[in-house]
C-alpha cells in the first residue's frame, strides 16, 4: 500500500489540480465557445463573449504560475533521483511559461482591437478586423511552439517517475508517451499537409491527458511514495 501523502506532495497535487482545471477552462472550454466555421464568425464571437475571453486569459495566467510552481515542487521531490533530469524538467517548464504568456498577449491584442474605443476611433472596421485576425493567428502559432515544451517537460518527468518508482509505473509510461505525442503532433502539423483532419491527430496527446490527470490524483491521494530502495522522497519532509 502507498504511504499516506505528505504535505509537500499534497501541495504538488493541489498545484497540478490548479493546472488541470484552469487548463481545461482556458484551453478547451473557452476556445470551444469561440469556435466558428469561418474567421469572421470567430471575431464576432470574441466581441459577443468578451467577458469569457477575459476570464479565459485570467485562468491562463493562473495556470502558468501554478505550472512553474509545480515544476519547482516536483524538482524537490526528484532531485535526488537525477539532478540533471530534474533540472531539465524545470528548464522546459521555465521556457514554456514566458512563451505562453507572450502568445496570450496576442489574444488580448485581438480583443482590444475589436472592443477598445480608442482602436475604433483610430482604425476603420475592416483594418481592425484584419489586425485582430492576424493577432489570433499569432496566438495559435505561439501556442504551437508552447506545446512542444509541454511535451518536452513530460519526458524527464516520466523518466524520473519510472526510475524512482515514486509514482505508479503506468503513470510514468503515460507521461513519456504523452510527451512524445505532444512533440510529434506539432511536427506533424508543420510537416504533413492536412494532418489536422487525420483521426490520429486527436489521440496523440491522450496519454498525456491520462498521465497528468492520473498523476494529479495520485499526488493528492497518496503523494510520492518511497522508491524501490526504500528512500523517502524529499517532498515527505
Give an overview of the whole structure.
By secondary structure, the chain is mainly alpha-helical. It has one domain (7-228). Helices cover 78% and strands 0% of the residues. It has 9 helices and no strands. Helix 1 packs antiparallel against helix 9 (206-221), helix 4 runs antiparallel to helix 7 and helix 6 (125-152) crosses helix 8. The longest helix has 33 residues, at 83-115.
Question: Can I get a quick summary?
Answer:
By secondary structure, the protein is mostly helical. The two termini are 20 Å apart.
Count, helices? 9
The tally of strands reads 0
Q: N-to-C SSE series?
A: HHHHHHHHH
**Domain count:** 1
Uncertain runs are 1-5
Percent helix, as a range, is over 70%
- Content-based structural category: mainly alpha
The average pLDDT is 90
Beta content comes to under 5%
N- and C-termini, Cα separation: 20 Å
Which outline best applies? Answer: elongated
Report Rg.
20 Å
Quaternary structure state of the chains depicted? single chain
Q: Main beta sheet, described? A: none
